[in-house]
TrEMBL record:
Protein location: Cytoplasm
Keyword list, A-Z: ATP-binding, Cobalt, Cytoplasm, Magnesium, Metal-binding, Nucleotide-binding, One-carbon metabolism, Potassium, Transferase
Descriptive protein name: methionine adenosyltransferase
Main location: cytoplasm
Gene Ontology molecular-function annotations: ATP binding; metal ion binding; methionine adenosyltransferase activity
Length: 92
Protein backbone atom coordinates (compact mmCIF):
# COMPACT_ATOMS: atom_id res chain seq x y z
CA UNK A 1 0.00 0.00 0.00
CA UNK A 2 0.87 3.66 -0.14
CA UNK A 3 1.72 3.92 3.57
CA UNK A 4 2.71 0.31 4.21
CA UNK A 5 5.38 1.34 6.73
CA UNK A 6 2.82 3.03 8.99
CA UNK A 7 -0.01 1.76 11.21
CA UNK A 8 -2.45 4.65 11.44
CA UNK A 9 -4.96 5.51 14.18
CA UNK A 10 -7.02 8.67 13.63
CA UNK A 11 -9.73 10.78 15.25
CA UNK A 12 -11.66 13.76 13.93
CA UNK A 13 -13.61 16.45 15.74
CA UNK A 14 -16.33 17.72 13.42
CA UNK A 15 -18.52 20.80 13.90
CA UNK A 16 -22.16 20.25 12.91
CA UNK A 17 -25.09 22.57 12.23
CA UNK A 18 -28.67 21.57 13.06
CA UNK A 19 -30.69 22.12 9.88
CA UNK A 20 -34.31 21.41 10.88
CA UNK A 21 -33.31 18.26 12.76
CA UNK A 22 -30.68 17.09 10.28
CA UNK A 23 -27.13 17.35 11.58
CA UNK A 24 -25.05 18.76 8.72
CA UNK A 25 -21.23 18.85 8.91
CA UNK A 26 -19.83 22.39 8.79
CA UNK A 27 -16.10 21.88 9.21
CA UNK A 28 -13.44 19.64 10.67
CA UNK A 29 -12.24 21.29 13.87
CA UNK A 30 -9.41 18.89 14.75
CA UNK A 31 -7.53 16.07 13.03
CA UNK A 32 -5.53 13.73 15.28
CA UNK A 33 -3.41 11.05 13.65
CA UNK A 34 -1.02 8.87 15.63
CA UNK A 35 1.00 6.49 13.52
CA UNK A 36 3.20 3.67 14.65
CA UNK A 37 5.94 3.51 12.05
CA UNK A 38 9.15 1.84 11.01
CA UNK A 39 12.39 3.12 12.53
CA UNK A 40 13.56 4.58 9.20
CA UNK A 41 10.58 6.96 8.82
CA UNK A 42 11.05 10.55 10.07
CA UNK A 43 8.42 12.79 11.67
CA UNK A 44 8.68 15.16 8.68
CA UNK A 45 7.89 12.27 6.33
CA UNK A 46 4.95 11.22 8.48
CA UNK A 47 3.54 14.77 8.57
CA UNK A 48 3.92 15.15 4.80
CA UNK A 49 2.40 11.72 4.10
CA UNK A 50 -0.55 12.35 6.41
CA UNK A 51 -1.36 15.69 4.81
CA UNK A 52 -0.80 14.67 1.17
CA UNK A 53 -1.91 11.03 1.13
CA UNK A 54 -4.45 10.72 3.92
CA UNK A 55 -6.08 14.04 4.84
CA UNK A 56 -6.35 15.46 1.30
CA UNK A 57 -7.76 12.15 -0.01
CA UNK A 58 -10.20 11.47 2.82
CA UNK A 59 -11.54 14.82 4.03
CA UNK A 60 -13.26 17.01 1.43
CA UNK A 61 -11.42 20.34 1.09
CA UNK A 62 -14.57 22.33 1.91
CA UNK A 63 -14.41 21.04 5.51
CA UNK A 64 -10.81 22.18 6.13
CA UNK A 65 -9.85 25.80 6.74
CA UNK A 66 -7.18 27.92 8.41
CA UNK A 67 -8.74 27.19 11.81
CA UNK A 68 -8.48 23.40 11.46
CA UNK A 69 -6.11 22.04 14.10
CA UNK A 70 -3.75 19.23 13.08
CA UNK A 71 -2.10 16.94 15.64
CA UNK A 72 0.10 14.58 13.60
CA UNK A 73 2.06 12.21 15.82
CA UNK A 74 1.84 14.84 18.57
CA UNK A 75 3.95 12.83 21.02
CA UNK A 76 6.80 12.40 18.53
CA UNK A 77 8.25 9.18 17.18
CA UNK A 78 6.07 6.10 17.64
CA UNK A 79 8.23 3.09 16.80
CA UNK A 80 7.44 0.87 19.80
CA UNK A 81 3.80 0.09 20.57
CA UNK A 82 1.82 -2.27 22.75
CA UNK A 83 2.56 -2.68 26.46
CA UNK A 84 6.24 -1.83 25.97
CA UNK A 85 5.47 1.54 24.39
CA UNK A 86 2.15 2.60 25.87
CA UNK A 87 1.60 1.14 29.33
CA UNK A 88 4.87 1.95 31.04
CA UNK A 89 5.88 -1.71 31.11
CA UNK A 90 9.36 -2.96 30.32
CA UNK A 91 10.85 -6.29 29.33
CA UNK A 92 13.05 -8.00 31.89
Amino acid sequence: GILCNQRINQDLTVEYHNDNGAMVPVCVHTVLISTQHDEIVTNDEITRDHKERVIKNVIPEKYLDEKTIFHLNPSGRFVISGPNGDAGLTNF
